[in-house]
Amino acid sequence: KNKENKLVEDSSHMVLLDDIEATDIIGEISAIDKKPYTATVETLTKSTLVRVTSDQLMTLLRAHTPFEQYIFRRLCEKLRLANEKIRDMRVLSANARVTREILRLIKFENEDSPTGYVDNFPTHAVLAARCGVRRETVSRTIKTLIDRELMKQDGKAMLISNKDGLARAYDDKGESPVC
After folding, report:
1. How far apart, in Å, are the Cα atoms of 130 and each of 23, 64, 88, 90?
2. pLDDT tens digit sequence for 74-98
């Protein structure tokens, strides 16, 4: 499965916006509004890309209602995630943003399960780029969460022992409540 990282670069550092899986679509916003791209994509593995022009995309959207609906759902998901991340940056502390990003990555056996896992837990540098924090902050936050037995490293996976405890690990000011 090819994975790519969508990055936004500013003068001081790169910010990781999203992971892109094989068969995902990139650049659809620019293809629709015909404005310049706002992000760059860096592949981690050898990848084959299919380029579709703006006119070709618009023809596909008009001719295939299921594809059109897929694109609109995808744009809504991107907008919701962007809104959530913007809110997190404005409201949450660095520690709480790291914890929130870990919660986004967790896979659960079922929704009611208090435990879960993250298969390929990202490096601290990647997690820092996703959260807009320093790598050192990620390292300290993860160490605290492991010390509190909310998570446990298992090779490249991270096992989550208490989803609710993880969600309550930091308040909005980044302070760890006394449990």
Report:
1. 22, 34, 12, 15
2. 999 888 988 888 888 888 889 999 9
